[in-house]
Design goal:
This protein has 291 residues and is α/β, with parallel strands linked by helices. The N and C termini lie far apart (70 Å).
């Protein structure tokens, strides 16, 4: 064997060893629930945990909106994704082959660890708006039409109160992110807004007891982590197990609270039908006619 052929073989053997050591490279996508910089700061420790524990490389992508996240999952340009309840239900209807991995857990204000949260409709106390009914003619903000707690469940609340927000309020805005709704309230750009309960508690910690909760939703299943069709069932189960077994004091849980105000408690594997309750929001007449 010549020296040159030996070098070629050594080169390819080295490439094989490197690929074995570093494993696969996965793209993990997250929807823009908050400021993208905050999301990156919050999820980077989770990517590091998954990379270290799996031997693979997890790279984070924060999409510009929910539509982009859905599109990227459908076109298989991401491997894993953090999706809200609505995304999960609609995506599973379109692509039953998507793999459910786990559900996100939070420490509730009651001290319990739960896979649920709620949607709040709030106003500043200084406006003297204390009920939905006396908010008629005001300026209102949702987050995004693809948002679970920022649109779908608030629409159920309005249906219960026989309110069509598009005719009841003087103006309706879509501000994309939950913290933008809080900023708009504080700056008096709007009078009333729909947010997640976690956003409310973060805002209360930051600004003080300035908000009236005018209405709140039924419990909402928390977000899910899914795998696209790129990922095998076996690999999905392996990553799901790593997420389930993540220690409660993991840096990622602390990062969620520090950067997003989420009282993260890790993940739990539920039955996929855990999300069936969300399907009721798609049957709300006012929601069906206006979406």
């Amino acid at each position: 064997m010549t020296e040159s052929s030996m070098l070629v073989k050594l080169f390819f053997f080295s490439l094989f060893l490197l690929s074995s050591v570093h494993g696969k490279e996965y793209i993990f996508a997250m929807y823009p629930a908050n400021n993208p910089t905050k999301i990156v700061q919050a999820l980077t420790p989770l990517m590091e945990y998954l990379s270290q524990q799996s031997g693979d490389t997890f790279k984070l992508v924060v999409t510009k909106d929910y539509d982009e996240l859905t599109q990227r999952i459908e076109e298989k340009s991401v491997d894993f994704a953090w999706v809200n309840s609505k995304n999960f239900v609609l995506l599973k209807e379109k692509k039953p082959s998507l793999h459910y991995l786990v559900t996100y857990l939070e420490n509730s204000k009651s001290g319990q660890i739960t896979p649920y949260y709620r949607s709040f409709i709030v106003a500043l106390k200084e406006t003297n708006i204390t009920t939905l009914e006396n908010a008629k003619g005001k300026h209102f903000a949702f987050t995004d039409k693809e948002s679970t707690s920022g649109y779908a469940y608030p629409m159920m609340i309005f249906e219960d109160h026989r309110i069509n927000p598009y005719t009841f309020f003087q103006k309706v805005f879509f501000l994309k992110k939950h913290d933008k709704v809080i900023e708009a309230l504080i700056n008096h750009s709007i009078d009333i807004g729909a947010i997640s309960d976690g956003t409310y508690y973060s805002a209360r910690a930051k600004y003080g007891d300035k908000f009236n909760i005018l209405a709140f939703s039924v419990p909402i299943p928390l977000d899910a982590i899914i795998a696209s069709e790129n990922v095998s069932i076996e690999e999905s189960q392996r990553i799901a197990k790593l997420l389930e077994n993540m220690p409660k004091d993991a840096p990622s849980n602390k990062a969620f609270e520090e950067h997003l105000g989420w009282l993260s408690a890790g993940f739990v594997k539920k039955d996929e039908h855990f999300y069936d309750t969300f399907k009721k929001t798609l049957k709300v007449p006012i929601y069906e006619t206006l979406r």
